[in-house]
């Protein structure tokens, strides 16, 4: 692992294993907030005016001293099990850089056993001149929650008297800001450190240190489906004899110009032992831009939704099912080469795009779709259930972080058409490299206003791992702007606003972002283009890559239409729009959401669309000449009865609806499941509904009643057999009309 190296902005990879072994913590209980004192500039601030997002999370932290491996960054990483510890002397301090001058209204200190009985909380605009926000002289450890009033870019806690013979030790230093933000008058700088949850390894990093850091994060993330942890692993060019296990909200990437520049010779793994071999909830993880030479010859990537594999060279076989052969339900591979055989024995649905399967494919269940994939099995739908297109169409690969010499840059692949095979196989990927200093490197705690100011200034946007609670809409209005998230960076709109809006301009790329709906209903999570616009973007389309929406699960959330695409020619390259069916904040009247994907623009292409559990049409396509390759859907589990799942004399809402006025549309490989857990007698008349016109053609469709818990009367437009009964046998239509 490396900290900052000359010419590079690097995140610190912490060793939670070492921290846990050395740390003996007392049980933490909420303590009454100590008196803030009467120092000028301090005082209480009304709780209603104070935000709830931790502005210190993931920010750069420094300290007067460090004991062992317990550096300052560990107090602002959001992990309650890691800590900063100082030398056993007085005075000592820790400070955090918030990135800009902020209105400060609260500071929370979560102490380890070694606490401070006397300390000051201070703020500074420049890191040189400090003013006191609060003074505590009777601290008792546990959690100190302080109301403060003031402003500053830097917040410092200075300990003057220890409560034990040890140094000062903080699990967490949290800073809360008001709704107002004082921005510096100077231009917002680009580039910067990637924060504590970006873990960077080089070929000279000791192997045991790399493995320990990987294992520590996996121990935390393996089963933490709805937790706050977000992590990005980056490997510099080299060979790494390690095993990389991918848990929730974890992204694994190489930094080379080609996948073969980074070789993981132990393996990269996603299994489902945490869920007793059932991989149907292995969500929100990814692997990208590296080679894997798996020990034993087999790489396992047993995943379902929101778990893409991109630009990967598998030097062996690839297993898409768990080690226990439990079910998995959908996945996505693009721009990859697999030397051995791909085995998908218990994988229900899968989409493989623009790749090479040198060793072929084994195992088909309900819906295996290939486009632009060399050595893919030929179309044989429905038995076996394979749909293969020779080429994909107009496509652009996802932007990715890489090294350009000694510096970070984001590589942006070029637009292509009639594609087949991986972009890098036998050559180099065509595109443009954008230096990191042309990006605003955002951190959790940044406001939408701050991000918009950076975008307006002409910077691209890099979202470092973490949760971004915002009260304003992030506006992307400049042509060819790149928005790239690392480590499942998550945007939560907290004021009922649209989380992000892309203007009706050419060439914007939005990639690697998770939107999590807030408790106040938003019109949308992501809106692309302006309603009613007819601007032509064919030469430089907007593109979405690995964009995911979650409504409920982590907490109660509400949205009307989750993703809305108004701009013509938009490319939608792998999305999962999910109204939650499990977790927190789940219920027919709790996590309300009408539609998961609405397409109003013309000439929009969708490659790998996963849209599930919405309360009306899961996908509504209003634009002309739409084109979809691969669609996966489950209807909502929770309509309380048939009366709640009816409209206009029709039982149920179709999973995929092409509006009645549309005259041209094509789609291949579409599947929809039902499992009405509240009332198994509920019936949907059709899984799919489209206009009956020669220009609308649908290929390889299926509906499935899971265990007979609900019924589809027909597959599409009154055509196709009933899907019902406990045998869970798909009802299929090969082509319509």
TrEMBL record:
<dbReference type="Pfam" id="PF00754">
    <property type="entry name" value="F5_F8_type_C"/>
</dbReference>
<feature type="domain" description="F5/8 type C">
    <location>
        <begin position="37"/>
        <end position="178"/>
    </location>
</feature>
<feature type="signal peptide">
    <location>
        <begin position="1"/>
        <end position="32"/>
    </location>
</feature>
<dbReference type="InterPro" id="IPR059186">
    <property type="entry name" value="SACTE_4363"/>
</dbReference>
<keyword id="KW-0732">Signal</keyword>
<protein>
    <recommendedName>
        <fullName>F5/8 type C domain-containing protein</fullName>
    </recommendedName>
</protein>
<dbReference type="InterPro" id="IPR000421">
    <property type="entry name" value="FA58C"/>
</dbReference>
<dbReference type="InterPro" id="IPR008979">
    <property type="entry name" value="Galactose-bd-like_sf"/>
</dbReference>
